Amino acid sequence: NKGTPLQTTRAEHAARRVAEKIEQTLIGTIAGPAFGTAANYGTAPKVYGYRNHPHRLTKTDLTASASATGETILADVNAMITTAVNANFYGPYILYVSNAYDRLLDNDFKAASDKTTRQRVGEIDQVKEVRRLDYLTGDEMILVQMDPEVCEAVNGMDPQTIQWESHGGMRSNFKVIAIQVPWVKTFVGDVTGVVHGTTS
């Protein structure tokens, strides 16, 4: 009322928490919301992400980060691409890696190499980008064909701040809300254009 600017730090924190929940839902590190009822669908449908979608493609024998080398990482990525191609997903792809693998990607590809492992993986024609996902905490990689036929963001409402008064107008309340969910699509044969790599 007196023209004093509002402190927005908490609002920024709240908006960041909302965005992080949306990101974790996409990655699949948290369970997505359920919608509908089992009576209508047989089982109650859920919003799935990359690593918890029931029809994702999988590779369960990645070399553990503790013993991985540039050559084993490259071989694992190529094997994941082969899995995708065999299911008729031909790229281009984005490769998402966990923190454990990301720190290895900047090591020499092999002894005295003039390239890092990241550069060598980036030379694979179908791999357009390699990104670290902070919420992948184990030994995991996710290969995604970047195509709206594979995954889309359903945007019901952009993040926004709502305000209301309480206590007879003596208190102003704020809440950051959004309606955004991933839509990872299933093709005929119950497959997706997502390959989830783990060590077991």
Written account of the structure:
The chain has 200 residues and is an alpha/beta fold. It has five helices and seven strands. The strands form two sheets. Strands 1-7-4-2-3 form a five-stranded mixed sheet. A hairpin with a 4-residue loop joins strand 5 (151-166) and strand 6. It is globular.
Largest sheet: 5 strands, mixed
Report the uncertain regions.
none
Structural class, please? alpha/beta
Mean pLDDT: 90
Note the gap between the termini: 60 Å
- What overall form do the CA principal axes indicate? globular
Q: How would you write the strand order of the largest sheet? A: 1-7-4-2-3
Radius of gyration: 21 Å
Question: What does the secondary structure layout of this molecule look like, with pairings?
Answer:
Blueprint lengths: L8 H19 L10 H4 L15 E3 L10 H17 L6 E5 L1 H7 L11 H6 L4 E6 L8 E5 L5 E16 L4 E14 L9 E4 L3
Parallel strand pairs: 1-7, 2-3
Antiparallel strand pairs: 2-4, 4-7, 5-6
What is this entry, summarized?
This protein is an alpha/beta fold and 200 residues long. Helices cover 26% and strands 26% of the residues.
